[in-house]
Amino acid sequence: MWDSFRKVAVVGLVWPFVFLKIFITKTPREIMETKEKKKVTKGQIIGIVVFIFFLSWLFNGNETNPTTSIQSEETTEAEVTDSQRYIISQSFVEEILKAPATADFPLGATAQIQNDEDTYTVTSYVDSENGFGANVRSNWTVTLTYNGGDWATQSNWTLDRLIFDGEAVYVSENFEEAISTLDEGLAE
Predict the structure, then answer these.
(1) CA distances, 116 to each of 1, 12, 119, 121, 122 (Å)
(2) Chain centroid to CA 6: how far?
(3) Which of 12, 124, 134, 142 is the right S-S partner for 89, CB 3.0 to 4.6 Å?
């Protein structure tokens, strides 16, 4: 932060003097006395070009490795954090609320997130208005799978199950099959 402040302060103090040196070579009286056209010299053009390069270097930074500033849009599963899983889970929950604009989710520290291979289960609560306008707290559990790509795009996730106030609002067919296979394996 201070590095950026320093850069802005230096540019803020230096540019008026550079501008005066490059563009004003005569006093106002000399300009009024001569009616010849003002010609731009090679030195002025070079000065402007150098000044532009200096400004671009100053504000873009002098990174020695420019590839570090370029982030890939593709996010691997290992790079998706619990906070991001919690945020995307909230978007699935908001879709089933009567008044999603009134939704008040707690901070992520109160959410429980469990990992089972590539499937994540997020459990928390939301305070929102019900159909009668009363503010109620509802518990929810979302089970989802990350498919790759931008984590903030809901279509890059597969919703496997959504339980809202103890009621299964959505259960995917693949999830039901996986649970029944697991139950059969446990019964044997």
Answers:
(1) 40, 55, 5, 8, 11
(2) 26
(3) 142
Alpha carbon distance 171, 30 (integer Å): 84
Percent helix, strand, coil in the chain, to 5, is 50, 25, 30
- What tokens appear for 27 in the block? 């006093």
Q: What is the pLDDT of residues 47-58, one digit of tens each?
A: 888 888 877 777
> Where do runs of H (alpha helix) occur along 25-146?
28-33, 42-60, 82-94
Q: What is the CA radius of gyration of the chain?
A: 30
Instruction: Tell me the whole-structure pTM to 2 decimals.
Output: 0.54
- pLDDT value, residue 159: 93
Name the 3-class secondary structure at 151: coil
> Where exactly are the structural domains of the chain?
2-69, 77-187
The answer to whether the Cα torsion of 73, 75, 79, 82 is positive or negative is positive
6 sits in which H/E element: helix 2-23
CA distance linking residue 115 with residue 88, whole number of Å: 15
Question: pLDDT grade, residue 23 (50/70/90)?
Answer: low
